[in-house]
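Q: I have three molecules that I believe assemble together. Could you output structure tokens for the complex as a whole instead of separate predictions?
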Amino acid sequence: MRLEQIVAQLGGRLIGDGSVEILQVGALSSAGRGQISFLTNPKYRAQLKTTHASAVIVSEKNASDTEIPRIVHANPYAYYARVTALLNPPPTRAQRVHETAVVLSPLPVSVTIDAHVVVGRRVCLGENVVLYPGCVIGDDVSIGADTVIYPNVVIYPRCVIGARTIIHAGAVIGSDGFGFAKEGECWVKIPQIGRVVIGDDVEIGANTSIDRGALDDTVIGNDVKLDNQIQIAHNVRIGDHSAMAGCVGVAGSTTFGKRCTVGGAGMISGHLEIGDDVHVSGGTLVGKNLKQPGQYTAVFPLEPHIDWLQNAAHLKRLAKLAARVEELEKKLEDMSKTQ
Amino acid sequence: MRLEQIVAQLGGRLIGDGSVEILQVGALSSAGRGQISFLTNPKYRAQLKTTHASAVIVSEKNASDTEIPRIVHANPYAYYARVTALLNPPPTRAQRVHETAVVLSPLPVSVTIDAHVVVGRRVCLGENVVLYPGCVIGDDVSIGADTVIYPNVVIYPRCVIGARTIIHAGAVIGSDGFGFAKEGECWVKIPQIGRVVIGDDVEIGANTSIDRGALDDTVIGNDVKLDNQIQIAHNVRIGDHSAMAGCVGVAGSTTFGKRCTVGGAGMISGHLEIGDDVHVSGGTLVGKNLKQPGQYTAVFPLEPHIDWLQNAAHLKRLAKLAARVEELEKKLEDMSKTQ
Amino acid sequence: MRLEQIVAQLGGRLIGDGSVEILQVGALSSAGRGQISFLTNPKYRAQLKTTHASAVIVSEKNASDTEIPRIVHANPYAYYARVTALLNPPPTRAQRVHETAVVLSPLPVSVTIDAHVVVGRRVCLGENVVLYPGCVIGDDVSIGADTVIYPNVVIYPRCVIGARTIIHAGAVIGSDGFGFAKEGECWVKIPQIGRVVIGDDVEIGANTSIDRGALDDTVIGNDVKLDNQIQIAHNVRIGDHSAMAGCVGVAGSTTFGKRCTVGGAGMISGHLEIGDDVHVSGGTLVGKNLKQPGQYTAVFPLEPHIDWLQNAAHLKRLAKLAARVEELEKKLEDMSKTQ
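A: Yes, here they are, computed for all three components at once.
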């Protein structure tokens, strides 16, 4: 693809030779002939001088930092994402229902149902839905147009998945929430009769699980991105454009506003209200409502084990240390008076 | 279903019009006509006055707090769990072996084996067992009566699953424990020849994994409830009636007593003894034996990131701070003497 | 198997009656007739006197601590691992392609492809590869000789798996890395065009996920052992002979040297360099480069909940406490001068 063809399709301002051939994307430091790279982080600006890329994507303020053919755009990283998609189209898949699939619902002709898939009764699939091998779609599920579901995903009955959503292999949507009543020393299961309702343009990572609601639904908003190994408990609600990194857990009935992020292994307790634009650092346990936007953190600082041993031991005596300091303050005050 | 029919089946004391029609359960705040709700948390007592539910389940002490038809019972939450089950029976499943299943063992006629299931050799299934699509049951596995296993669960050879147990989609039971001997810089695998033995009335969450024992078995007691994304390592033993929330990990050979709970993302080190009635808070790492009942916690307190930066920096100098306080105490003591 | 036959196959020095029959391995404390045990931990040396094992494996220095038939070897634990393998050979599997498998590539005759497996186009399998039921192997994947893949594993297109590797049930290899560019409040997906490249003699646990690289590959070295429920993000590189316990997460582009270990639920931030022989304690979050070998820890110390409440509250005022101590030091200094 020629550079000028990319600009014709994706916009931006072309500077330099538009006829240069672009085959693939690459990092500034490693890209070679036929590759297009990009600059967003000013830290790497010097690499603009040394890169062997055939073209680069830069913002207006870096437009004259290089001589090589370039595309100037307000958001080089998003532009780069689109170029990557343009140069790496998804494999074309035969639109058909594989002979080993078990399908109990009528389907649009544009869908692709791969080997050993099971589609239950009264399932509603949008146009161009792709179900990779081994997926199990429960009765009464609805899946929006252009959604792609990778192998061995399980969607329990009655769940709703939006359009243009991607669900990675091994994810489980709609399993029972963890709800039990205590009776003596025994647990009585509370049937989980809500659903999982997932919006449009969502991505859900490999082996992530999202439980169905107890009474009401578990709701994942539009453009929410969930990484791998995440656990979303029953009746959680996640606002539009939020993103959570790998190994995050969100306990039951907690509500997130819009544009929130949670770093890897962040853990959010149940029944909390997290407002819009809240950012939880990786490894942080959140145990209270967070209604103000901002970044919140709770991580023990890393140390060589031998130093940690000492500081951790003193941490267990911190309340006593504070009392000793208070005592010192009083004594010193008394001494000042008597002097 | 009429309210009096519910009482006839589940017990409790009926006050008010027993002929009212009950179609579904609901929360006090949102329930409407045809729905039954319940009160356990005194915080919500005022809602008894305003709810639009057609009936409620209350304890003796709240019996006269409302005029609407009500069921009085010692444990309204457990009663509510049973009403939910009564009003939401599981879908009836055709008792049959799907033509795409591969079954190498004789089976009772009452079982349901769905599409693409694999049942190995010498497998023993109890009456009414349900295996959803894509489950793989290894050779010599035994599964008790009325157990339900959701799609794409894998049970390795020789494991034992009790009766009335529920295993959610994507769970893996009986994978090899993580056992290696070091030889130079290389690892030598120690074959894991124990089993996983799971009791009756257990529930295991989506994408949870339980490793088989190295020599002896990994044992999950009766009425144990494990949420999603949990990792149980080899030779762990969990006592009856214990419950663990999502993302918990238990390392090898640790033993739990009865009625223990672990909050979400709690992590338990290996080779520990945890007694009866121990409760580990969410996000807490347990690194020592806990023989006394009670609740244990180890969580860094949450703060705005900017405050955390300061406090965490001082935490790395805590041992030095304690030494400085001790020094101050000595000096003050000396000054007192010399005065 | 007679003890002398074991020595003939695995080496070591035999002391005592080599004709004793050995059927299985066992722990010193519980082994009985026909079982062989071992001693490595000096803590258990006394059990050499009381064990009912028919034979033991000991090091040179414990060779005369017992009268029972014994094998003397420099590394009794590794020897024990090999004896366990010898006495517990893996089940022989029919070398064949199950009639329900969907295979779109030519295969060596020595492979075992079980029920409902899907093997894509241009897949290259080595000799003796075993694919258990329900595995889905994407197009252009390569798998080395003698590798065993347990049920319902998914390997995305173009990934490379080495020889003698074991992948446990439910693992996902090659799902998209978590890469999005922000545009306004929306996320633009960055197609992930790298691969996952896994070395020889690797073991990957149940329900573990390893993402494919964004541009370059995610690389798992030789003899790396990953436990269950682990998340490896895009472009991570893990050096040879490293091992990670259950529930570990490694964020994007972090590089590990050789012979590293990470304890259970250890979490490693992105874009870090971890050197050779670094050992991260369980539950520890690593947020900076670790170039020096050694053990590193960051774990809040466990306490009864009531004590934790106090100490944690003071931790949030630690910077203030340190300031108060500094103030005290100044005052005391001033008082000393004025005296």
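A: One point stands out. The CA atoms of residues 218 and 311 of chain B lie 42 Å apart.
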